[in-house]
Design brief:
The protein contains 11 helices and 10 strands. The chain is of the alpha/beta class. Strands 1, 2, 3, 4, 5, 6, 7, 8, 9 and 10 form a 10-stranded mixed β-sheet that branches. 31% of the residues are buried.
């Protein structure tokens, strides 16, 4: 179709655009009429043909539909990247470094922000539709949590309030991940909680497989807990992921864990690259060790991490500072 259209253009000339056009020359609608198809259809095909010439990999796909879908995904991703680059992240605390006497905002690097605050107080300060993805591990039933203790009802209530507050702050189609224990899923309470807050839940989950996990002391009673499920959901109709994805992700926690629920940077980078475009903003209301901020920076994303516990905030602050110092040394060398 492209070759045919170009032959007619060569024969009859390129149409003049603007008010000075005299109606002569061969137009796309002329090719559409000659082939007996709609102008929209021929326009899409010509656009796809140009895209295949620029990116031959599109031409290797099994069908025109597959190539067209891949082209549309690529266009959407480029548009999101351009939009993210043009969108300036405003400071939620105006010109001050402090939200209040006890709440601190640390701008560690361009677009990377660590906030010491209660997430339920900080989330309302975010701009509506400013967050491209939510990735977090809430304080569920955990003995080590100094603020919320080990009461599962407290953790569930906090998570529900957080999800309600985040809904208007997320972009339409934003993809979200919620780390949780298997028991949270099999009881159905987490699924009900997330759907009640107005989110669409995927019928598949991500599974973080942890190789090298210690064997169960009672392997005949129950299998070793060598994985962690991640609930996958979106705000309204989900946008496409930015790369083909499978459910099981194998990543190992290396070295000393500075936080009991610490996730490896490699896992978080993997998830970030699947959910977001370069320059988009990720939010974690329970940032813990700060590894999500490190993963976001290393993949060219913006990120805001909130942590209200003084000890955990200090850990995240130290981890992020150390990472950025190492990056600066590598750049200089």
């Amino acid at each position: 179709k492209k070759r045919l259209h170009e032959m007619y253009v060569e024969k009859y000339g390129t149409p003049k655009s603007g008010r000075g056009g005299d109606g002569t020359g061969w137009k796309v609608k002329d090719t559409a009429e000659r082939l007996g198809i709609s102008v929209g259809s021929i326009s899409e095909d010509l656009q796809l043909a140009n895209a295949v010439e620029k990116n031959p990999e599109l031409g290797k796909l099994k069908s025109k539909v597959a190539a067209k879908n891949a082209f549309k995904r690529d266009l959407e991703l480029k548009g999101r990247t351009l939009l993210a680059a043009l969108t300036k992240q405003k400071k939620s605390s105006s010109d001050s470094t402090y939200l209040s006497q006890d709440n601190t905002v640390e701008e560690h690097a361009k677009g990377i922000r660590l906030v010491k605050a209660d997430c339920l107080e900080y989330i309302p300060t975010l701009d509506d539709s400013s967050i491209a993805a939510l990735i977090t591990d809430p304080p569920w039933q955990v003995e080590f949590d100094s603020k919320f203790g080990s009461d599962p009802e407290t953790g569930l209530d906090l998570t529900e309030k957080m999800l309600h507050a985040m809904h208007p702050k997320l972009q339409d189609g934003a993809l979200c991940l919620l780390f949780c224990a298997t028991r949270h899923l099999i009881t159905g309470r987490i699924h009900k909680l997330v759907s009640t807050c107005g989110y669409r839940i995927f019928d598949t989950i991500f599974i973080w497989y942890k190789p090298g996990t210690a064997h169960s002391s009672h392997p005949y009673m129950k299998p070793s807990n060598d994985y962690e499920p991640i609930l996958f959901f979106s705000k309204r109709q989900a946008r496409n992921m930015t790369r083909p994805s499978y459910a099981v992700l194998e990543h190992q926690n290396h070295g000393h864990k500075s936080h009991p629920a610490q996730k490896p940077v490699s896992l978080l980078k993997d998830l970030i690259l699947r959910l977001t475009a370069e320059g988009e903003t990720i939010f974690d209301p329970f940032v813990g060790s700060g590894n999500l901020l490190i993963a976001a920076h290393s993949t060219g994303r913006k990120a805001i991490g909130v942590e209200m516990d003084e000890h955990n905030f200090t850990i995240a602050d130290s981890n992020l500072t150390l990472y950025l110092d190492e990056q600066e040394k590598e750049t200089k060398s």
